[in-house]
Amino acid sequence: MEGESRNIFCVIQGPLLTFGQGPNNSIEGFNAINTVIANVAQLERRRIKFVVCTWRSDEHLVAEAPFFPAPNILLESPYPLDVDHRFKHHYAVKQGVEFLKERYPVKSSDMVVKIRTDMKMPDSFWNWLMTDPVSPEKLLVSELYHPFYLGDFVFAGTCSVLDDYLSVITGSYPKLYHPGIAFDLGLKYFSLFDHRKRLTNPLVNRIAFSFFSGRLSATWEKFIDAKLVTLPVAIWNEILWRDKPMDGVIKPGYFHFTPGPYNHRSTNKESAGTYRYFVQAYREKLARLNYGNLTLYALSLLKGLWPLLENMPDAAVLALDYDDGSLAKYLASKGVNCTRMKVDPAAPRLETTLPVNTILFFGLIERIDDPKEFILQCKRLLPQGGRLIACISYHGLAKEFILRITGRKRTQLNRMSENGIKKFWTQEMATRLLQEQGFKVTGFKGRGRILYLWNTMILSAVAE
Question: Which of 24, 163, 218, 334 is the most buried (most CB within 10 A)?
Fold first, then answer.
């Protein structure tokens, strides 16, 4: 079909008030309405049928926007739990495609393009699409990285290809909240063509930490040749993301796991080097997913802590930590009366003049030489009946047994030393520690992994 014209349809997807990682980011967010209007004008001029898919929370912005003529707007806002709303975005795009097929005579061979609400597409992008550069069997993505990373800023394909892509992304398990979010999209799309690759958390983890980079890179390159195509670099650089050129925003290391776009043929040696870079950076940055700047550890804890904090509307929380305080900042941003105190594990001293009725700490007990004194300091700050929420790395008999029979005990001991952990704690040991210092333990919850192999335990207690 190369050289022939084909019908093009477009889904403009995303919030009208955008937040999160990206240029021109502020507390107030970036108002994308003018960007949407500019893209709509491009589409109207080319007579491309389109739909805008945004969130219900932006309904007031839609009503106030100076759209003329008024575009088709879907105010849909699914609420799945996922990192950076990736599943939500794809779900909304799928709704947009279904809307276009119901409203217009969209053929399976027609092209459907997804663009973002906060990205202004240049004339060169639409002119390039009009030349029909994408083979009918391929999916167009904005960028490709090693390994199995698809850039979803822009994606397009024939209606049948896009249906397949969106179906496998929104329908496969696990949903897009896995730590492997960076390559989750690529793995899911790959699984559509290789049914031996059933996507499971262990599989994604193995790929994330795999050292067989040469074989993995070769598999990825074959898949690219057969099923994927990227935007030309020149067009990519002209796209404005929140009014900033992409070549000034997406630079080497931006995503923390790649030295740059994979828009060229690389040798196996270069591919292996890229992947080694990925493994190193991924390990260093694994705790930095794009979810309010939360760490993976904090994100896992949040799921367990939220039900406790929701039931304590009058809580004045003192959050103790030793890192960057991302969890405390996130809780405060969500309306929790939370004050953060950074604690030095080598010499913990707790002093505050603020009224406190709840103390929350995480990652401290296992790093402190005298945990009894630390718990006593917590108790001195709390009134009688005050709440203590302790988040401690979990270690139990089942976990110890699994580590020994799998030969991973030595690895755990090495990581323990590297991370400054002084001691492993079981549920019984942590419960006894709190009870001996004058607390009554009222609840226990394990977080992360599977039953009895948890990463973390959360104990709630009351000062007696």
Answer: 163
Residue 194 carries which side chain, given as an amino acid letter? D
What is the distance in angstroms between the CA of the first residue and the CA of the last residue of the chain?
A: 77
* Local structure of 139: helix, strand or coil: strand
Q: Where are the domains of the chain?
A: 8-254, 273-463
| Measured CA distances, 402 to 5, 57, 397, 417, 423 (Å) | 60, 46, 9, 20, 18
Q: What is the pLDDT of residues 362-374, one digit of tens each?
A: 878 888 889 999 9
Backbone angles phi, psi at 117, to 5 degrees: -65, -30
Q: Across the chain, what does the average pLDDT equal?
A: 73
Q: Does domain 8-254 have CATH number 3.90.550?
A: yes
Token pair listed for 74: 């879907």
**φ/ψ (deg, to 5) at 327:** -65, -45
pLDDT of residue 263: 38
- Cis check: omega of the bond before 179, within 30 degrees of 0: no
Encode pLDDT of 45-90 as tens digits.
999 999 888 876 666 566 666 654 555 666 555 544 444 556 778 8
d(CA 52, CA 40): 9
Give the per-residue pLDDT at 346.
80
- Asked whether residue 312 carries a pLDDT value surpassing 60, the answer given is yes
110: tokens are: 């027609």
Return the closest-CA partner of residue 40 out of 72, 7, 5.
72
User: In the block, which residue shows the tokens 């226990």?
Assistant: 444
Q: How far apart are CA 372 and CA 160, in angstroms?
A: 63
- Of residues 404, 402, 410, the one with CA closest to residue 451: 402
How many Cα atoms are found within 13 Å in the side-chain-facing hemisphere of 302? 20
Which whole-number Å values give the CA distances from 407 to 272, 393, 410, 413, in the listed order? 27, 20, 7, 12
Distance in angstroms (rounded) separating the CA atoms of residues 386 and 378: 10
Residue 188, CB half-sphere, CA atoms under 13 Å: how many?
26
E strands of 257-386, at which residues?
317-321, 338-342, 358-362
Residue 106: strand, helix, or coil: coil
CB-based contact 359:318 (threshold 8 Å): yes
Topology of domain 273-463 in CATH is Rossmann fold (3.40.50)
